[in-house]
Design a protein that fits this description.
The protein is an alpha/beta fold. It has six helices and eleven strands.
């Protein structure tokens, strides 16, 4: 591992998953979920090192192939009841036991979020590194009217007055935690042993990519999003290339006040 890492990204990716067997190795847009998370972290300008903590041999191999270091997670931290915090703390303990300096900023990424934007990570890291916040997490804006079911089976409005139906543009946005990323000060995290501590801020991310893989339907939606994203990127590249090489022909006379000569040369 990189003992001099000031900003360390950790991707917990256990082998067991009841909802989708082998979930962290399932692919979106031709790349496994764990690879997508590692490559997003490595593309961020401010992340110095990336670690995948796992109990699975295949995941460990995929993580290394993607450019990450690997910390093997013990069985008691890889079960259904184990928290993400426990996996992160284990990585930090392993670093300390090896005599490595702990990072100043810890970036917790979830492989189940396949569209993590490196620029969003850098923005969040700056907020924490510069002392503006202790924690910054990813959240998608929402204007949804939420309801819950009461004990008697009736529907109860949660985030609005059911008798008032303001237009979308007249409502302040609320934010849904996406689970994609959490950036935090390492010392604060180790002290509180929880991802939310001190001053907490959020960074608003694109709702279109705020997909969390929980079942097969989510994989289908993510694959479709990846395809659209790839097509858009290809089109943008094609247009940029065409603009760069195409001759610049004006669509009007650049000197409209000058009379054009007649075919016989007369004025």
């Amino acid at each position: 591992m990189h003992s001099s890492a000031t900003v360390l990204a950790v991707v917990p990716a256990r082998a067991g998953s009841k909802g989708i067997p082998g979930k962290n190795l399932r692919t979106v847009g031709g790349r496994s979920l764990v690879r997508r998370a590692v490559e997003s972290a490595r593309s961020a300008a401010l992340i110095d090192a990336v670690v995948v903590t796992t109990d699975g041999d295949a995941i460990a191999a995929e993580a290394r192939a993607a450019g990450a270091d690997v910390v093997r997670r013990p069985a008691d931290l890889a079960g259904d009841q184990a928290s993400s915090e426990s996996a992160l703390l284990h990585v930090l303990d392993e670093l300390e036991a090896a005599g490595d300096a702990l990072p100043e900023v810890l970036v917790f990424l979830q492989a189940t979020s396949p569209f993590i934007d490196p620029d969003d990570l850098d923005t969040a890291i700056r907020r924490v590194a510069e002392g503006h916040a202790d924690v910054v997490f990813a959240a998608a804006p929402s204007h949804a009217f939420l309801w819950r079911i009461a004990d008697d089976g009736s529907a109860v409005a949660v985030n609005h007055d059911a008798a008032t139906r303001p237009r979308r543009q007249d409502r302040a946005a609320e934010y849904r935690e996406t689970g994609a990323s959490y950036v935090m000060r390492t010392d604060g995290f180790r002290q509180h042993r929880h991802r939310f501590h001190g001053r907490v801020e959020l960074i608003a991310v694109d709702p279109a990519g705020a997909i969390d893989i929980d079942d097969e339907t989510d994989l289908i939606a993510a694959d479709a999003t990846a395809e659209v994203t790839a097509e858009s990127a290809a089109e943008a590249t094609a247009h940029a290339t065409a603009d760069a090489v195409a001759p610049q022909i004006p669509d009007h006379d650049p000197s409209p006040t000058r009379a054009a000569p007649a075919l016989n040369g007369a004025p």
